[in-house]
Design a protein that fits this description.
Layout (H helix, E strand, L loop, with lengths): L24 H8 L2 H7 L9 E4 L2 E4 L3 E2 L2 E7 L5 E6 L12 E3 L7 E5 L2 H11 L13 E4 L5 H14 L3 E7 L3 E2 L1 H5 L6 E4 L3 E4 L5 E2 H14 L7 E8 L5 H12 L5 E5 L13 H8 L3 H9 L10 H29 L5 E5 L16 H14 L5 E3 L15 H18 L3 E4 L7 H11 L4 E4 L1 H14 L1 H20 L3 H9 L9 H6 L14 H6 L4 H23 L5
Parallel strand pairs: 8-9, 8-19, 9-14, 10-13, 14-15, 15-16, 16-17, 17-18, 18-19
Antiparallel strand pairs: 1-2, 2-4, 3-4, 4-5, 5-7, 6-7, 11-12
Helix pairs in contact: 4-6, 4-19, 7-10, 8-10, 9-10, 10-11, 11-12, 12-13, 13-19, 14-15, 14-19, 15-16
C-alpha cells in the first residue's frame, strides 16, 4: 500500500490523512492537458510570478528558479500537485506521473504533492514559507483540529498582528504516524490530562499529512511571518519500546521544527519508587555524586538541599535519560540547532492531584541545571501551573498565586535561556490571560487546541443542523460505549444528554472529538467526510469567528497593536 491509497473514498483529502495531497492522477493529467490550461501556460518565463485559474485548476507560483519554473496546482476537489516547466530544480520531486509536450521545447512535468516533494518545493523556490526554528521568540501554538479551515483565518490574524506561532501543531492524541496506519496497527490508548483515556489519532490525520497540508496552506494564503510546526506531546512511557517508538515518530516528523517530549509516565510523583540503580546504571554516575554536584555548586547559583535533590533525582531521573537520548537522535535527524525542544512536565497521572503537584521554582532550577549539565538542548519547558482543561484558572490562591509562580519560574527559565509554556489555554479568560502577560512580559509560549473545533461545532449547529445532528449522534454513541466500559463520567454525561442538545452540552463538549477519526471497517472516516463537505457559508462564518477569537487572545497575551 502506498501513501495515497490509504485515504477516504474520493479525491478530497482536506483533512490530510496521508503524506500526499495528490489523489486522482488520471483526472489531473487530462485536466492539465486541456486547451484552456495550455493557453494560460503559454507565458514568458520572466513573467512567472502569479496566481491564476484555468478550467478546474488553480495555479500558485513563487516565480522562476534558474531555467525552470515550478507551480503548485490545486484541483476543484483539493487535489494538489506540482507542475515543473523545463528541467526540475531538484531530483527530490521524485518521478513525474505525467508529461505534457509544448511547442517551445520546454515540456511540463507533473509530480505528486507529497511530504518530501513539498519540502523540496519550498526549499528551492521559497524557503521562507515552511516552518522554522523560532528559538525563544514569544508565540502562540495553534492546534490544527479543523486543519484546512482554521489555517486561513489563523494566517490572516498572524499577518495582521505580526505575530509568530507554531501554526502546525497536533499531538499523538490527535494524529498518528502514517506507517503505523499502513501496517494496520490499532490506535493506542493515551491518557488525556484532566479528561481520561482516548485513542491516538482521533482527528483521522497523520503527522506527515498535517505538516504537508499546513505548509501548502501557508504558501497559498501567504504566511508572511515566520512560523513553526510542533510535533506535540511525543509520549515516552518506558525506556525501551517507548524510546524506540518516539524515534519512529521523530523520523515521521523530520520536517517539523518544534518537538514536545512528554515523559509524564516516567515521572515519579510519589518519590517512593527506587529508581536510583536504574538511572545510575544508564548514565554511568552514582546518585551520590549528582547530589553533591547540585548541592555544592560554587558558581553563585542557588544551592539546593541534599534531601530535595535526592527526591528530584528519583522523580525526574528516568526523564533525563530519555531526553538526552531523544535530543541526540533529533540532532542526527534534523541537525544541531535546527529545532526547538520542549519538555512537558505538566501532565499529571490520573491517580495524583493536579493541585498538589503544581511545579515549584526549585524543581525547575534543578531540572534545568541537570539538563544543562547533560548537554540537552531544551529550549522550552511546560510546568504544571494548575491549568485544567475545560475551566478558567481555579487553583487555591487564585490569580495572585499564578502570577507569583509565573514570575519566579520565568526568572529561573530566563537565566538558562529557556522559554516557559502555558498549555491548555483555550478556556482561560481574558483576565487570566492578562495576568499571564503581566507576569511574563509577553515572553511566553501559549498553546490552544480544542477551541478551534468547539467554535466550528457552534457554526455547524447554527448553519448546518442536519450535519450537527449526525455529529451529535456519533458523539453520544461514543460516550455510551465509554459508559458501558465503566466510565462514571461518561455515564453522567449520557444521563444529561436528553436535556441539552447544543454544542455546549456536557456530552458533546467532552465526547465530540474522538468520533471524527473513528473509521468504519473499510477505513472510511464517514463523520469527517460530513464535516468537510458542508456549504461554503459554514466555513466562511467559521473563519470569521476564529479570527474574532484569536484577535483578543493575542492582545491579552502580547499586547500587539490591532489594525
Amino acid at each position: 500500500m502506498n501513501d495515497h491509497e490509504f485515504r477516504t473514498p474520493g479525491p478530497d483529502l482536506r483533512p490530510a490523512v496521508a503524506g500526499t495531497l495528490t489523489s486522482d492522477t488520471d483526472w489531473i493529467a487530462r485536466e492539465f492537458s486541456n486547451r484552456d490550461v495550455q493557453k494560460r501556460l503559454k507565458i514568458p518565463m520572466s513573467d512567472f510570478q502569479m496566481t491564476f485559474t484555468a478550467g478546474e485548476l488553480e495555479f500558485f507560483s513563487p516565480g522562476r528558479t534558474g531555467d525552470s519554473a515550478t507551480l503548485l496546482v490545486r484541483g476543484a476537489n483539493h487535489e494538489h500537485f506540482f507542475a515543473v516547466r523545463g528541467t526540475p530544480i531538484t531530483d527530490r520531486f521524485g518521478r513525474a506521473f505525467h508529461t505534457v509536450a509544448t511547442n517551445d521545447g520546454s515540456p511540463w512535468s507533473l509530480f505528486p504533492c507529497n511530504y518530501d516533494s513539498t519540502r523540496a518545493f519550498v526549499d528551492e523556490t521559497q524557503p521562507g514559507i515552511h516552518s522554522v526554528r523560532l528559538g525563544n521568540t514569544p508565540r502562540i501554538g495553534i492546534g490544527s483540529r479543523m486543519t484546512t479551515y482554521s489555517w486561513a483565518p489563523s494566517i490572516r490574524v498572524l499577518n495582521r498582528r505580526n505575530l509568530h506561532a507554531n501554526l502546525i501543531q497536533n499531538s499523538v492524541r490527535e494524529v498518528r504516524v502514517l506507517n503505523e496506519i499502513e501496517r494496520g496497527e490499532a490506535a493506542r490508548d493515551v491518557y488525556l490530562y484532566s479528561f481520561g483515556t482516548i485513542k491516538e489519532g482521533h482527528t483521522g490525520s497523520t503527522f506527515e499529512g498535517l505538516w504537508l497540508r499546513g505548509t501548502v496552506e501557508a504558501f497559498i494564503h501567504n504566511a508572511a511571518v515566520p512560523y513553526g510546526s510542533d510535533a506535540d506531546h511525543i509520549k515516552v512511557e518506558d525506556w525501551d519500546a517507548g524510546l524506540e517508538r518516539a524515534r519512529g515518530t521523530i523520523d515521521a516528523c523530520r520536517n517539523y521544527s518544534f518537538f514536545t517530549i512528554d515523559t509524564s509516565a516516567l515521572i515519579d510523583f510519589s518519590f517512593d519508587r527506587d529508581g536510583d540503580s536504574r538511572y545510575a546504571a544508564a548514565i554511568g554516575e552514582s546518585v551520590d555524586s549528582l547530589v553533591s554536584f547540585h548541592c555544592d555548586c560554587d558558581n553563585g547559583e542557588r544551592r539546593l538541599g541534599r534531601a530535595f535533590v535526592a527526591q528530584m533525582l528519583k522523580k525526574y531521573g528516568e526523564s533525563f535519560y530519555v531526553l538526552e537520548q531523544l535530543d541526540a537522535y533529533l540532532a542526527n535527524v534534523r541537525g544541531v540547532g535546527t529545532y526547538d525542544l520542549e519538555w512537558s512536565v505538566d501532565e499529571i497521572p490520573a491517580e495524583f492531584s493536579v493541585r498538589e503537584n503544581i511545579t515549584t521554582p526549585e524543581e525547575i532550577l534543578f531540572v534545568l541545571r541537570e539538563l544543562r549539565r547533560r548537554g540537552v538542548g531544551v529550549t522550552h519547558i511546560a510546568p504544571n501551573w494548575g491549568v485544567e482543561k475545560g475551566r478558567d484558572y481555579a487553583m487555591p490562591g487564585g490569580l495572585d498565586f499564578l502570577s507569583g509562580r509565573l514570575q519566579e519560574i520565568g526568572a529561573v527559565a530566563e537565566a538558562f535561556g529557556v522559554t516557559i509554556d502555558v498549555h491548555s489555554g483555550d478556556d482561560l479568560s481574558s483576565k487570566t490571560r492578562r495576568v499571564i502577560h503581566a507576569a511574563t512580559g509577553g515572553n511566553v509560549h501559549f498553546k490552544i487546541s480544542p477551541v478551534s473545533q468547539e467554535l466550528f461545532a457552534e457554526v455547524v449547529f447554527e448553519l448546518a443542523p442536519e450535519a450537527f445532528q449526525t455529529w451529535w449522534d456519533h458523539s453520544v454513541a461514543f460516550a455510551r460505549e465509554q459508559a458501558r466500559e465503566g466510565s462514571r463520567f461518561a455515564a453522567e454525561c449520557v444521563e444529561l444528554a436528553s436535556t441539552d442538545r447544543s454544542p455546549h452540552s456536557s456530552i458533546f463538549h467532552h465526547y465530540c472529538y474522538p468520533p471524527v477519526g473513528i473509521p468504519d471497517s473499510d477505513g472510511t472516516y464517514q463523520l469527517r467526510e460530513v464535516l468537510y463537505g458542508l456549504p461554503d457559508n459554514v466555513y466562511t462564518e467559521y473563519g470569521r469567528r476564529w479570527e474574532a477569537y484569536l484577535d483578543p487572545l493575542v492582545s491579552d497575551l502580547f499586547e500587539t497593536e490591532a489594525p
